[in-house]
Amino acid sequence: MRLIMHNMLTCNIKGVINKSPLRIEAEKVIKKEVDFNPDFLRHMLAKIEWKALVDGARSMGYTELPVHAPGIESDEPFLRKFHHALLELNLEEGSLVCQESGRKFPVNKGVPNMLLHEKEV
Amino acid sequence: MKLKQLEGLLGGLKQFYNPKVELEQYPTGPHIASRMLFTAENSYGDITDKVVADFGCGCGTLSAAASLLDAACVIGFDIDPQSLETATLNAEELEVEIDFVQCDVTKLELKGQIVDTVVMNPPFGTRKKGADMEFLSAAMKVASQAVYSLHKTSTREHIKRAALRDFNAKSAEVICELRYDLPKLYKFHKRKEVDIAVDLWRFEPRQN
């Protein structure tokens, strides 16, 4: 699971109001290199929830992202960090935790299991 | 990448080793999958450099096609862990990056406008009535640019009406009609092979 995907995931348990972001408990993280695409990254900057990305990256051991995204001009050094956090950090084993209910969604072999139990729907 | 090359690569993928009839698990053949994604990119620019979600990805055929056509990010969603296992192996074989999520897409809530395009070969609703509409509704909530989906030609008017009236579609077009050849996959199948007329749809959601 990469942070680009984590940024869109929410907890859909019935009754939960604070559905996202899910807190990451990382047990195994691997890095996989991906081609750098600055146009795509600039395009994504407007769509990504920044705090969720920074916190997510920290949980996976990457602390280089600035607390605030740059305003208008995003230079290459920043984009490289953004690229690495968004696309190259892979959570292989761990959990995604709903901040409100405490429910843990397990991540095994990189695949989060977001299936709910009957009572939760 | 040329169409023939894409079709060839998709033809080498592993398929369901334990297909579940109640989920309507049928492989999306390389002929349909390659044409679907090739059209999405060449006629509409909806794949290359885009974030693409594959709803009900099964063994990941459409996801693999999107990756091979240089989507910036591909995410496959499916409820069945065994299919996701096969999909993961297929991605490794092709050396493409695809993220997978185990979930029920009809119950999923995704935040934001990150997904550009949803591609899918959803259940037709032959086992769980209305499954095709549930998938379409879910896809229209997630895609910010376009949804590509396969539905039986016999449901054409119904789909168009529902998409425009209920699922927030700005447009709903049948791009082409295809023949979906289903091999004898389950014990109850009497004929060796059967041919179903399906429509390839392109839906555009209204901006949220």
TrEMBL record, chain A:
One of its GO terms (molecular function) is protein heterodimerization activity. This is Multifunctional methyltransferase subunit TRM112-like protein. Belongs to the TRM112 family. It comes from Brassica campestris. It comes from the Eukaryota. PANTHER family: MULTIFUNCTIONAL METHYLTRANSFERASE SUBUNIT TRM112 HOMOLOG B, UPF0315 PROTEIN-RELATED. InterPro entries: Trm112, Trm112-like. SUPFAM superfamilies: Trm112p-like. Interacts with TRM9.
Automatic annotation (TrEMBL), chain B:
It comes from Brassica campestris (Field mustard). It holds the Pfam family MTS. The keyword NAD does not apply. This is Methyltransferase-like protein 5. Gene3D superfamilies: Vaccinia Virus protein VP39 (3.40.50.150). The keyword Ribonucleoprotein does not apply. Keywords: Coiled coil. GO terms for biological process: rRNA methylation. Residues 84-111 form a coiled coil. Belongs to the methyltransferase superfamily. PrmA family. InterPro entries: DNA_methylase_N6_adenine_CS, rRNA_MeTrfase/Polyamine_Synth, SAM-dependent_MTases_sf, Small_mtfrase_dom. GO terms for molecular function: nucleic acid binding; rRNA (adenine-N6-)-methyltransferase activity. Residues 44-139 form the Methyltransferase small domain.
